[in-house]
């Protein structure tokens, strides 16, 4: 079952969130962090798939702080607009939004966070800065190296990277592994950026399936 709800954050901001709940008893709660393209069909599908696996999943619309209801296409114009929006958004607002989403679905308890692309970096940062986060799984987040001198995860973290990702070269991935040796880091041969999204040309079914299985097992272990 799915629906949209409104969240109010600690700084008084109100944002939309997509909430998917399992039919039976929940295994726990997961916050799903969007790409730069908004809480679109792909992100809603991720929430629905997690609910099918028994998890309560919520995706706060982080770009509501800039333009409510944002959904962008996977094309050059969408990429340009999305990048401009998240640069304007910064990192502090998303942390407040994730904290509000966690409190909405699991008040006073730990939640998991998983996110994609820009959301993969947001996911990592939430593991460092949001106390409610008990486990985090980030997918192809390219901004993580900028936090190596300022932040450190406070919970178990897993990261997924494509080995053929032009946005995240090997030295980027190696910097993450060296700075945070406790992170579980998986790399996928033949996979590029966005390999989990079946709405993008970079989708790789085998890598996506394996990363998905690893992610579910990780959350089951740590939450």
The count of DSSP E runs of length 2 or more, i.e. the number of strands, is: 8
Mean pLDDT: 98
Main sheet overview:
8 strands, mixed
Which structural class matches the secondary elements? alpha/beta
Quickly name the level 1 CATH class: Alpha Beta
Are there runs of 5+ residues with pLDDT below 50, and where?
none
CATH architecture: 3-Layer(aba) Sandwich
* SS element count, helices: 6
Give the overall form: globular
Number of domains: 1
CATH fold node name: Rossmann fold
Measured distance between first and last alpha carbons: 22 Å
Structure write-up:
This protein is α/β, with parallel strands linked by helices and 223 residues long. It has one domain (2-222): Alpha/Beta hydrolase fold, catalytic domain (Rossmann fold, 3-Layer(aba) Sandwich). It has helices at residues 41-52, 76-89, 92-105, 118-129, 170-179, 205-222; strands at 2-8, 14-20, 28-33, 55-60, 111-116, 133-139, 157-162, 184-188. The radius of gyration is 16 Å and the shape is globular. The mean pLDDT is 98.
């Amino acid at each position: 079952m799915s629906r949209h709800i409104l969240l109010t954050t600690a700084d008084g901001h109100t944002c939309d969130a997509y909430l998917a709940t399992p039919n039976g008893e929940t295994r726990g709660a997961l916050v799903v962090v969007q790409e730069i393209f908004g809480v679109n069909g792909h992100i809603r599908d991720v929430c629905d798939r997690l609910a099918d696996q028994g998890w309560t999943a919520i995706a706060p619309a982080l770009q509501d702080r800039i333009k409510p209801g944002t959904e962008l296409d996977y094309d050059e114009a969408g990429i340009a607009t999305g990048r401009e929006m998240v640069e304007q958004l910064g990192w502090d607002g998303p942390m407040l939004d994730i904290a509000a989403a966690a409190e909405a679905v699991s008040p006073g308890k730990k939640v998991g966070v998983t996110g994609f692309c820009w959301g993969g970096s947001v996911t990592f940062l939430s593991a460092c800065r949001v106390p409610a986060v008990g486990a985090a799984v980030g997918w192809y987040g390219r901004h993580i190296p900028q936090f190596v001198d300022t932040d450190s995860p406070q919970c178990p973290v897993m990261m997924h990277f494509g080995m053929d990702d032009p946005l995240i070269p090997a030295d980027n991935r190696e910097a993450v592994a060296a700075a945070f040796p406790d992170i579980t880091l998986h790399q996928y041969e033949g996979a590029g950026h966005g390999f989990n999204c079946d709405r993008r040309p970079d989708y790789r079914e085998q890598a996506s399936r394996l990363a998905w299985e690893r992610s579910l097992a990780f959350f089951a272990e740590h939450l």
